[in-house]
Amino acid sequence: MSLPDYSGFKEIKVQLDSGVLVVTIDRATKRNTFIDALGADLKNVFEFADKDERVRVVILTAEDTAPAYCSGADISGGWSGLFAKDDDEEGELAHRDGGGQVSMVIYNCRKITIAAVNGHAAGVGVTALQLPFDLRFVWAGAKQSLPFIRRGIAPEAGSTYLLPRLIGHSRANSLLLTGGTYLPNSPLLENLYHEILPTREEVFPKALALAKELAVHASPKSVRYTKGLLQHGGESIEESHLLDSRAIRILAASPDAAEGAKSFFERRPPQFESKPSKDSWYPWWRSVDVKYRKTKL
Amino acid sequence: MSLPDYSGFKEIKVQLDSGVLVVTIDRATKRNTFIDALGADLKNVFEFADKDERVRVVILTAEDTAPAYCSGADISGGWSGLFAKDDDEEGELAHRDGGGQVSMVIYNCRKITIAAVNGHAAGVGVTALQLPFDLRFVWAGAKQSLPFIRRGIAPEAGSTYLLPRLIGHSRANSLLLTGGTYLPNSPLLENLYHEILPTREEVFPKALALAKELAVHASPKSVRYTKGLLQHGGESIEESHLLDSRAIRILAASPDAAEGAKSFFERRPPQFESKPSKDSWYPWWRSVDVKYRKTKL
Amino acid sequence: MSLPDYSGFKEIKVQLDSGVLVVTIDRATKRNTFIDALGADLKNVFEFADKDERVRVVILTAEDTAPAYCSGADISGGWSGLFAKDDDEEGELAHRDGGGQVSMVIYNCRKITIAAVNGHAAGVGVTALQLPFDLRFVWAGAKQSLPFIRRGIAPEAGSTYLLPRLIGHSRANSLLLTGGTYLPNSPLLENLYHEILPTREEVFPKALALAKELAVHASPKSVRYTKGLLQHGGESIEESHLLDSRAIRILAASPDAAEGAKSFFERRPPQFESKPSKDSWYPWWRSVDVKYRKTKL
């Protein structure tokens, strides 16, 4: 595969360093609002990262001087302004939520994904730009808000799937059915985050330090299988046993397992393979095609 | 629809004020024990609330001078005394748990539901009268107990479904398999509650203040869809995307979304529609009929 | 049934006292590493406990002077050394993970199971030897580590099923996708534990005290049904209602329910039946056979 070009984006800045792809939302003058062009950039960059062997960890962040990490959708034109005309021809069934498109690409990315939330976030800035990530770092002062019921719309971007899975229905109810604004240390939010940091400035460096460590110490193949098992695991302990038995058997016979044990005993950083080997079994789950097929010519 | 009459109840007091229906358990002299008549009143009042356009939020509470919020079933006659004779003719298959009947009506109510737990609670006082609600406020001194295994019976009222979903299996196990008594600030319980208050007297006013705010600021249609997505969401992020794309498309085209955006920019309270519009799509899930059909004439 | 003999084990010590079966890992000189022989002993002892009417609660623990509760698999021979030759003849499909075999037996045990984690734990020492238990007590100083991605293998022993169910996907991601080492009081771990104790020496006595209390105060039949409902409950509140209605009807008519109510009013310890009655309905779920059937003679 030819290497992707990370320079052509409009709404984000992208940098690849030591296996870590850093994606920075670049709309500070617009309070980092979510617009279609930002969604398109994010979809593309996470699709690139998914396939680029050089990338082992992806971080999404904002400038820590920006007014917000992401202040949600730009609804200055009202909600209906957010929907493309071509949906209308086919009716409501044709619509595919833009935040959800981004959520799915991030959630399905086979690399470790980290959101470094160094500012306030609302709406899609919480749902698509935080919930589908593997890990979330946050500034303790970053206000988080899911105000959908207060704006007359529905929670989007897969949030009613992701949020209860991440922190349970009790807190998901509290967040989505009050539509209130909460700080990360609130008992309603805290377990959403891997780490809560006292200042904005600490958020990205902390996330980057973990990312760089994992870029060396985490086997890309193990990450792929672990995410697969967490996202597409069995529906009983027995089904899970059948899946993880097969996964561990495949991995234990791989060079990464040998290197994992060897480097551990030699007390040195491992050198894991980056090139995805062709597995006959992975992915073991069915892909779901969510594309709308037009009925009209 | 003719307006329901909230005056004919025996075991509860009911008051409708500014869109908030306040239901108070009125059995203080009996420690607010759960009896069939209380169950019937609760089923009726939540069914009324579900359909009454004037009601936007329902609160269940007790008098804060009562010996308990609800001290569970009245088992002075033993457990077998709790089962109606007509079950016996058809055997165990015919039985429908009374607490569960209440749980289902509360859980399926399309309005925001809040339990204001201003006293101790045990058994069905925790299961049916707390778990199916969207939000729970509680007094820090209110002892909570799920003693089923210590009384030789099974946890009821959908609690083995609701409790793990709300706070995870680790804590559900701890609560149900020790049968112990815990205070709301216990790590085993705390995330069950939206807010824990130091005194009994603060519980109801706090719940009422949020209820009144949500009665104005939460779009009834948004609430209906959000609860639908949380309770009957997709089983993968892709399924969730298909559901919430359709939901947000329908809502974004509704008057509530226009008013939600407009009132936000005008910095004034929104005026949302109360009348449920006829949606061709909602509810999108299958209703389950749990009624027993007798085999004998 | 003839009583099982608890004296023939090699890697564990077993003691039955007042309804509590105490299983102590007896490999302190080997840092309590997990080897096939330990797995076999654990499978056997939990299978015995499941069927032995005298056993009401099982505790797994280690000597509190041991270097670890369980320091994981012994990988001094590399990962591939852990796989028996006979897997190889049939390929990866034939493999059944040893940790998972133990997890399933513990998870499916119909008695209350408690892990008393009085030392450090890593890998299978967390997954198989903690996650399938009903309750976990732990020493605050016991380091917990799930380093699979750092060793080039996959998380095993049903951990990708059990961990998210117990504490949610947010923390399961943090633990499994960083592969880091955490103390029990970390927000990433704390809700995994029923109780966290300041010293190693307090862990087992605390677990034993609860075990002895539950051996008297918890109806074995209630425990069986409660665990069944938690593990194999309905997939909606309606399905759950149908299951728990039937369960409570069966139990309410049982001698244990009568004794549960009677002893409660007489303020004395209950005397529950130990002999499992033949229930026509329990277990109501399908058993899953995970055994591999060889294709070759």
TrEMBL record, chains A, B, C:
Would you tell me the protein name for this molecule? Uncharacterized protein
Annotated organism of origin: Marasmius oreades
PANTHER family membership:
ENOYL-COA HYDRATASE_ISOMERASE FAMILY PROTEIN (AFU_ORTHOLOGUE AFUA_1G01890), PTHR43684
The text of the family note is: Belongs to the enoyl-CoA hydratase/isomerase family.
Q: Which Pfam families match?
A: ECH_1
Q: Report which superkingdom the organism of origin falls in.
A: Eukaryota
